[in-house]
Amino acid sequence: MGVGVQARFFSFMRVLVLAIALPLVCLFGFYANYALLVLALVAGLGMIFARQRLEIGLAGGMFWAVFAGLGLTYGIAARAPGDLLLVFNLLPFALYPVLATLLGGAAARPEPARLLARLALAGVAVGAGLALVDGLVLGADRAGYIVSDPIRLSNTVLILAAFAVVLSPAEEGWRRWACFTAPVLALLVILLAGARTALLGYAPVFLIALFLVLPIRRALAVTLALAAALGLATAALFALDLVPERIAGLPRLLGALLAGEEIGDKSLAGRLELYRTGALLFRESPLWGHGWVHLADAIALHARPGYEDIARLPHLHNELVTFAATSGLIGVIAYGGLLVLPPLCAWRSPRDRYRRLRLHLALVLSAGYFFLGLADTMLIFELHMTLFVAWTAIILNTLRVPAAAPDD
């Protein structure tokens, strides 16, 4: 390939990655995972032919260490050669350097922060539009199945909305304040989807985002204004009977938990049983766990009578518990390392004019994955594993001053 052809090829690949990872991710749904992996593999082949050196860095090294550690535990737990194929689920971690190298070229664009702000806000708008169509037009009980599922749609929109808030300083005038509509749209999606995990993570994630980008007094004022707007929107949805019972019954459920009464919610009772089972599995194999492919069998072996249904689940409805049960102590270290990775690498990144923005985005990314992983899976779920790698690559590599034009 000639130099001009190479430049056009990699530029086109960057556009596709940014489009699928931000504005179009909700539209692609589960297919966003496969699309991003295919793009990374094709870009990697292009780099081989172009003899382009990969940018590995600290982030790439940490992702490779996680890939090797988790892959080792999967190999130890394998009972048949076919079980080793599950290691390919970890492929996004291995492909980070390819995405980092590819997206590094986007740093040459003028005002990359402004571009990312608009892409993130567009992604929130697309997600809200899908939820409205699925919930109001098609009449789905829980919006989201039209493209993926309610949990994935809600979690994706929530993190994109947090990105939009953090990136708001890059905008000016009405466009800057438009970024603060993202939390309202995110709540709309969560309520229409009946995603309780996303609802519980909503407040801490957006409080962190607001206090990162605004002075304390202004952050408090914006928080109160958003709370009022969200309250009105929620009241309207309740009045129109558009809120799923999973959300409408949440206050009663929390009251029963606090009062020590019997939990009438089968879903929550099942999750608590999964946590108990996960603790038993970790104690049985604390170093490298039971592996992923045989997790359902291990759950079925330890589940108490009356909870046989949970044995069909492919995870333990908690990120840390799932990592511990499937990969033992190695998995726990990998989980902690992944959450620390974005802010650590942003902190150690060049001290240019985008460093603070990189750090703020990295913090809300890790915070979002932490809170959303308390009652579900994120990092170990294929779609959000790939998105975590792609979003980390975007944060660390598109928001920087090119070496040829150092910041003064």
UniProtKB/TrEMBL annotation:
<keyword id="KW-0812">Transmembrane</keyword>
<dbReference type="InterPro" id="IPR051533">
    <property type="entry name" value="WaaL-like"/>
</dbReference>
<dbReference type="GO" id="GO:0016020">
    <property type="term" value="C:membrane"/>
</dbReference>
<protein>
    <submittedName>
        <fullName>O-antigen ligase domain-containing protein</fullName>
    </submittedName>
</protein>
<feature type="transmembrane region" description="Helical">
    <location>
        <begin position="31"/>
        <end position="49"/>
    </location>
</feature>
<feature type="transmembrane region" description="Helical">
    <location>
        <begin position="56"/>
        <end position="78"/>
    </location>
</feature>
<keyword id="KW-0472">Membrane</keyword>
<feature type="transmembrane region" description="Helical">
    <location>
        <begin position="115"/>
        <end position="133"/>
    </location>
</feature>
<dbReference type="InterPro" id="IPR007016">
    <property type="entry name" value="O-antigen_ligase-rel_domated"/>
</dbReference>
<keyword id="KW-0436">Ligase</keyword>
<feature type="transmembrane region" description="Helical">
    <location>
        <begin position="153"/>
        <end position="170"/>
    </location>
</feature>
<feature type="domain" description="O-antigen ligase-related">
    <location>
        <begin position="184"/>
        <end position="335"/>
    </location>
</feature>
<feature type="transmembrane region" description="Helical">
    <location>
        <begin position="223"/>
        <end position="243"/>
    </location>
</feature>
<feature type="transmembrane region" description="Helical">
    <location>
        <begin position="7"/>
        <end position="25"/>
    </location>
</feature>
<dbReference type="Pfam" id="PF04932">
    <property type="entry name" value="Wzy_C"/>
</dbReference>
<dbReference type="GO" id="GO:0016874">
    <property type="term" value="F:ligase activity"/>
</dbReference>
<feature type="transmembrane region" description="Helical">
    <location>
        <begin position="84"/>
        <end position="103"/>
    </location>
</feature>
<keyword id="KW-1133">Transmembrane helix</keyword>
<feature type="transmembrane region" description="Helical">
    <location>
        <begin position="177"/>
        <end position="193"/>
    </location>
</feature>
<feature type="transmembrane region" description="Helical">
    <location>
        <begin position="323"/>
        <end position="347"/>
    </location>
</feature>
<feature type="transmembrane region" description="Helical">
    <location>
        <begin position="359"/>
        <end position="381"/>
    </location>
</feature>
